[in-house]
Design brief:
DUF2871 domain-containing protein; transmembrane; DUF2871; 133 residues; mainly alpha; 0% strand
Length: 133
C-alpha cells in the first residue's frame, strides 16, 4: 500500500515539475506554438498521480495489492507510463528546438500499447477480486 502512495506522490511531483518545465522551456526559447510538452503536465497528473490514488483506494477496498500478479502489473503499467511520458518530453523539446525524430511516434505508440495493456490488466485483477466479494 505504501508503494502505491509513494508512486502517486512521485508522479504528482513529476507532473508539477513538468508544468513548470514546459512554461520555462518555451519562454526561454521564445517558442509560442504547440508542443508535446503542453499535455505532459496533465498526463502525469492524471495517469500517474490520480490513477495511483484510485488504485490505492481500490487496493484498500478489494485487496488488489495482495494478488499474486499485482507486482508484475505495477511494473508493466509504470513502464508503459514512463515510455509514453519520456517520448512526450523528448518530442516536445525537439519541437521547441525546431527538429524531430521520425521514429519517435513508434516508441510513443509502444508506450501507449503497454499502458493500455496495464489498464486492461488492472480491470481483470479488479474483476477477479470483485467476484470473490
Amino acid at each position: 500500500m505504501k508503494k502505491l502512495y509513494y508512486t502517486s506522490f512521485f508522479y504528482a511531483v513529476l507532473g508539477l515539475l513538468a508544468g513548470v518545465f514546459y512554461r520555462e522551456a518555451t519562454r526561454h526559447n521564445g517558442f509560442t506554438g504547440e508542443t508535446a510538452l503542453s499535455p505532459l503536465h496533465t498526463h502525469l497528473l492524471v495517469l500517474g498521480f490520480m490513477f495511483f490514488l484510485i488504485v490505492l483506494g481500490l487496493g484498500k477496498l478489494f485487496g488488489l495489492h495482495e494478488m499474486r500478479s499485482f507486482g508484475a502489473w505495477y511494473l508493466v503499467y509504470n513502464l508503459g507510463l514512463l515510455i509514453t511520458i519520456g517520448t512526450m518530453a523528448v518530442r516536445g523539446m525537439l519541437q521547441v528546438k525546431g527538429s524531430d525524430i521520425p521514429s519517435l511516434p513508434y516508441i510513443a505508440g509502444l508506450g501507449h500499447l503497454i499502458l493500455g495493456a496495464g489498464i486492461i490488466w488492472l480491470l481483470v485483477l479488479l474483476g477477479k477480486r470483485i467476484q470473490r466479494v
